[in-house]
Specification:
Layout: H1 3-15, H2 21-37, H3 51-62, H4 67-75, H5 78-81, H6 86-93, H7 95-104, H8 115-132, H9 135-149, H10 156-176, H11 180-194, H12 196-212, H13 214-227, E1 235-241, H14 244-254, E2 265-271, H15 274-287, E3 289-297, E4 310-315, E5 321-328, H16 329-337, H17 341-345, H18 354-371, H19 376-387, E6 391-395, E7 401-405, H20 410-417, H21 419-423, E8 425-430, E9 433-435, E10 447-451, H22 468-500, H23 507-510, H24 513-520, H25 525-533, H26 539-552, H27 563-569, E11 580-583, E12 591-593, E13 605-610, E14 614-619, H28 623-631, E15 636-641, E16 649-658, H29 663-673, E17 677-685, E18 691-700, H30 703-713, E19 719-724
Parallel strand pairs: 2-5, 11-15, 12-14
Antiparallel strand pairs: 1-2, 3-4, 4-5, 6-7, 8-9, 8-10, 13-14, 13-15, 16-18, 16-19, 17-18
Helix pairs in contact: 1-3, 2-4, 3-4, 3-9, 4-7, 4-9, 6-7, 7-8, 7-9, 8-18, 8-19, 9-11, 10-11, 11-12, 18-22, 19-22, 20-22, 22-25, 22-26, 29-30
Length: 728
């Protein structure tokens, strides 16, 4: 056995001193299993592949994870890269370890359109496994950390791709789980691989600054150690240095040079209990002058990842700002290893920590978003939104604190309370004042949500909501509502076709649904109605098939694969009878209004059944539609307008006006009185004439409304002629 492998194995066993004798024996067997499974495999560095999983387990041992997690870390690549099956792992090590390994294994058996789609599906699989067992993400972070530490053997292209992925997903996940130790390491490793020259220059500058300030830092540390006991505080004082990447981001964000970044160094004071945190703060503010506005109490209001600490920035010697962090031992542990501290403390404490609770809530929200998204890439987009929450704290009227990403709106707040509160939201009061739903919330705002049980999400909300939960829920509701509208319209078309037929057919009783759906290769009536509503199938043609099936009295033994084509061909036998359908404006994508003639309610109109686009409505004076109907009458149907509420239709007018000062303002005023909105204006000046042509696009509710607009426009003295256009 090679010497370096034995050293790593020995180091792993030494690091697991906290395990019982039986668990250590189990770990030894897993090490042997790992080495045997990967025998003959080598990494790009030239070392045996088993070196990697042993290092992953070693990193996990540093976080005091249990034996199941360590064994899963050792075996995490065996299913993907060796002949080992999940069943054999289950047989040897139990179902729980097999589940952990499965959650860590990539989805390689399916075919994906792109690398990005495959990567997105792998992330989704891993995070869903994490929701069931948080150890999955901890092992994955250890795996990614070791991979980042050994990137040097890969090509520049792969190094950049892996580093970018790590910076966008894995480092933020570590931060979200309160795993600051891993978060900082991953960020710096990504920085080194993405911007090696910048990393080198900055690293050299910080090393130099560290040497120059060493005496000052040592002196300040001694000063703090001697001062705080006089306030009844016992604590340890550690010097801390900002990570390279955080310094780089600060320079980039504030557009300053390294010489202008003063708070690279600071101190962390770890005390015994919560009371001593605040006593220590008073002691330090007596020793150094605090800088106004630079104090943050993350103990009273923990960060979204459960982080707790007191932060204060004081004026140090020589006018240099100095950041001080004060926390308890438990807070310090949670800050460094986040959710992994659960395994460190689980034998000592039975209660769920705030971090565990927050992690559990986050995972629940991910599961909720997952159920509402179909595409893996869409799920990853939502995940990225959640991973960068510059947080604000707002309040319910009852005083409950709600944590939201910066830039959130009352709609985000409503959905954070409950999906139904968000869905039924109609308005909001912020600090007892009525406010628009797109208002950006600020720290300390008190929000009341106004609701109506009949209200529905507005598509425009998607342009300003900030949280992934709200975005996914809104999209899901809109999709569902749209789907239901299309189905309802398809059913309406079929009922109408039945009423127009001479044959007496009772919709629910006489239609041979089972036979019809079988012949059309459809799963349900809803699917049939949806296809009719969107124009893929025609209600009259479907009814022709119903008659054929009824007359045959039994289903043929062999069904043609082109049944749908036969149905469409049967349209040739239909006549252009006086068929019509009523429209109420709530049909969603099943009904569309032609952009060539801009029909509005009240117009003499007819509709064209277009495959995939549903019913496209034209005005009967539209020359293009008249010609098309003559060529293919079976696809056309007359329109009866029902009373339509709260829907705006576009209408274009052509106005010949005398060019005079303020004429456009007069026309606009005449239109605004009728509560019509101008959406488009263009002017065509005529050379050698005092007249010009205005083309105006308006939002109109119906023909009566249009007549009112025309009456008002004709009162303008400068107007010579106004006509409605048949096209824009």
């Amino acid at each position: 056995m090679p010497i370096f492998k034995r050293k790593i194995s020995d180091e792993l066993l030494k690091a697991t001193y906290y395990l019982s004798r039986s668990d250590r024996a189990k770990l030894k067997r897993a090490i042997s299993f790992c080495e045997s499974a990967h025998v003959g495999q080598f990494r790009k560095t030239g070392e045996p592949y088993s070196n990697h999983p042993i290092n992953v387990a070693l990193i996990c041992a540093g976080w005091k994870l249990d034996v199941e997690a360590l064994v899963a870390g050792l075996l995490h690549d065996t299913v993907e890269d060796t002949a080992t099956s999940l069943q054999s792992i289950s047989n040897f090590y139990g179902d729980k370890i097999a589940e952990l390994v499965d959650g860590l294994s990539k989805v390689d058996r399916l075919v994906y359109k792109s690398y990005e789609e495959k990567t997105a599906e792998n992330f989704r699989k891993m995070l869903l496994a994490t929701a069931a067992d948080a150890r999955v993400i901890l092992i994955k972070l250890a795996d990614r950390l070791h991979n980042m530490q050994t990137l040097s053997a890969l090509s520049e292209k792969k190094k950049r791709r892996i580093s970018k992925e790590t910076l966008e997903i894995f480092a933020p996940i570590a931060h979200r789980l309160g795993f600051n130790e891993v978060y900082r390491k991953l960020e710096d490793l990504c920085f080194a691989n993405l911007y090696p020259k910048r990393y080198g220059v900055l690293n050299k500058a910080i090393s130099k600054a560290r040497g120059n300030r060493k005496e000052i830092i040592t002196e300040l540390q001694k000063k703090i150690i001697h001062h705080i006991p006089s306030f009844g505080v016992k604590g340890k004082v550690f010097g801390r240095e900002k990570s390279l990447y955080s310094v780089y981001l600060k320079m980039k964000e504030k557009r300053v040079s390294f010489a202008e970044v003063f708070d690279i160094h600071g101190f962390r004071i770890v005390v015994n209990n919560l009371t001593e945190c605040y006593l220590c703060l008073g002691a330090l503010h007596k020793l150094f002058k605090p800088i106004p506005g630079r104090f943050k109490d993350y103990i009273a209001l923990p960060k979204s990842n459960g982080y707790q600490s007191l932060h204060t920035v004081v004026m140090g010697p020589y006018g240099t700002p100095l950041e001080l962090q004060i926390r308890t031992e438990r807070m310090h542990s949670l800050s460094e290893v986040g959710i992994a501290s659960h395994w460190l403390y689980k034998k000592k404490e039975k209660d769920t920590s705030p971090l565990q609770f927050k992690t559990h809530e986050w995972m629940k929200s991910l599961l909720s978003v997952h159920k509402q998204t179909a595409a893996p890439s869409e799920f990853i987009d939502y995940l990225k939104i959640d991973l960068f929450p510059d947080v604000i704290y707002v309040f319910t009227p009852q005083g409950e604190i709600i944590e939201l990403p910066r830039g959130s709106t009352p709609v985000d707040f409503a959905y954070s309370i409950h999906s139904d509160v968000g869905k039924n939201c109609t308005g909001a009061r912020i600090n007892n004042q009525n406010s628009p739903l797109d208002t950006k919330l600020k720290n300390g705002d008190v929000i009341s949500v106004l609701q109506n049980l009949n209200a529905k999400p507005d598509p425009s909300w998607l342009t300003f909501v900030r949280t992934s939960k709200a975005r996914a829920a809104i999209r899901n509701t809109l999709k569902k509502e749209t789907h239901e509208r299309v189905i309802a319209f398809g059913k309406k078309l079929m009922l109408h076709a039945i009423n127009e037929m001479n044959e007496k057919i009772v919709f629910d009783k006489d239609v041979p649904w089972k036979s019809l759906l079988f012949e059309l290769n459809l799963k349900s009536r809803d699917e049939l109605f949806e296809k009719i509503g969107l124009g893929y199938l025609y209600a009259d043609a479907v009814l022709q098939r119903v008659l054929i099936i009824r007359k045959s009295k039994s289903l043929p033994s062999v069904f043609s694969s082109d049944a749908k084509q036969k149905i469409e061909l049967s349209m040739q036998h239909l006549t252009d009878a006086a068929r019509s359908i009523s429209i109420n404006g709530n049909e969603g994508p099943a009904v569309n209004y032609a952009a060539c003639c801009f029909p509005i309610p009240g117009d003499a109109a007819h509709g064209y059944l277009s495959g995939g686009k549903g019913l496209i409505i034209h005005r009967k004076i539209c020359a293009g539609s008249v010609k098309q109907r003559a060529n293919d009458p079976a696809r056309w149907i007359d329109i009866i307008w029902e009373e339509i509420h709260d829907t705006q239709f576009t209408c274009y007018l052509s106005l010949q006006v005398e060019e005079s000062p303020g004429v456009l303002a007069k026309i606009a005023s005449a239109i605004s009185i009728t509560k019509s909105n101008i959406v488009d204006v263009s002017i065509n000046r005529h050379k050698g004439s005092h007249f010009c042509t205005l083309k105006i696009g308006l939002e109109i509710t119906h023909r009566v409304h249009l007549a009112e607009v025309l009456r008002n426009i004709r009162k303008v003295s400068a107007l010579a002629k106004v006509t409605r256009l048949t096209k824009s």
